[in-house]
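Sample intake sheet
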Amino acid sequence: MFERANKTVTVWLFVVVALVALMVVVGGYVRLARAGLSIVEWNPVTGVIPPLTEEAWHTEFAKYQQTPEFQIVNPTMTLDGYKRIFYLEWAHRLIARLAGLVVVLPLIYFLWRGIIPWRRSGIYLLIAALFAFQGFLGWYMVASGLVDRPHVSHFRLTIHLLTALTLLGLALWTALDRIYGASAAGRRRASGPGIGVLAIIVLQIAYGGLVAGLEAGHVSNTWPLMAGALVPPGLLAVAGSWLESLLEAPMTVHFVHRWLAFVVLAVALWSYVRHPAGAGSVARQVRAAALLLVAVIAVQIALGIGVVLFGVPIWLALSHQAVALAMFVVAVYLNHRLASTAGSKA
């Protein structure tokens, strides 16, 4: 009975991982469809029900007409056009609410029945709290596009994305701990190659968030050249200082994201070479995870080049985003297996 309950908690954690990944991809679709700013208020409870009458629709549309997006980007939009983007964002928020229930209700049950002891509940409560915090961050991001510009802050979008990665990684690591067993010593010692690979992947995904927020994917539709050059001149002076250029200039951000991908691939290859095949199941798991990571990164680079060459089509951009999540998941798994290796040597 206890073993079955223990497996149920593990399955729940993997469901949380899948829900976070789904929300990231759905959020990407809503953003690419320019529907994310269609609902101008955050009503966690009453917002579950969309407008039901023509009068209610006109009221919502009038609110949207006061936003910069309508006034600058969509001044000719009709009520029917508004309904289309409204329903996309409404569905996005509804999925988030339902996902929140899937996270919170089972956790309450596990704690109530003692399946998760209170003395070990900290990590699970943190997962639930982070999920709720993601909802707040989502609105904080949307709010930045409702005042004086028709798009959200690329910094807030990237913070929202990185928080999702943190939540996904935490839930995945906890699930892997339940499958393989936790290794405190291993976690302390796995601070070398595995952490380096994971860190540069997170940096690359963060730059992907900046690219998305700045719509920097549209600044060049050629590869490997940008603006007719391999390295366009003045990349570190476009926005004033070198730091502002690295974080706020679309051309520079695009350039960094484009070529950092190959640094990520090189680091992953180094990790694979550094961990040759050895005896034991953990060593084989490390080797397989390192090889899989190289393969996923190669696919991701190919998708990224395709996104550039074909002008950021939605389906290809979403595939690129989904594979980025797969890349992060494999990197977390690799780190967990490396931690077990280090723990066994401690």
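Comment: Residues 184 and 266 are 29 Å apart (CA to CA). The chain has two domains: 1-182, 184-346.
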